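[audit] Reproducing an earlier prediction to check determinism. Same input, same settings, fresh worker. If the tokens differ from the archived copy the diff job will pick it up downstream; this log only records the rerun itself.
[audit] input (118 residues):
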Amino acid sequence: MRISPSGYHTVPRTLGRRAAEPSCPGLAADHGITPECLIGCLKTVIPGRAFRALARALTGRRRSRVLTVADLLALYRTGELAGLPGIGQRRYASIQNGLYTAGLITRQGRPAPGKAPQ
């Protein structure tokens, strides 16, 4: 937790976690990234600027849910990811490359065998 500039509110550091238990054992360095992981696990494979743009776009879109990698894969699969605010061609390509690096999609952009979101 960190204190906001005004000092009245505490701001959680983790993205998208709203008083829920994490569904993955820890940092992505400790385990493989799966669709059940929290979106924060992708920080290790998506560049910082692209991840922050993605985080801003997703938190504005789905405030009441814990965001998972499966949510991102669903947006990617339906083509909605490219239309999110702040996600241009370069950031989209960075996110796509990160998903490929994590083994969640194939180079052609299809879900990797055994990694498709439920």
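[audit] rerun output stored. Observation attached for the diff report: The two ends are 32 Å apart (CA to CA).
[audit] end
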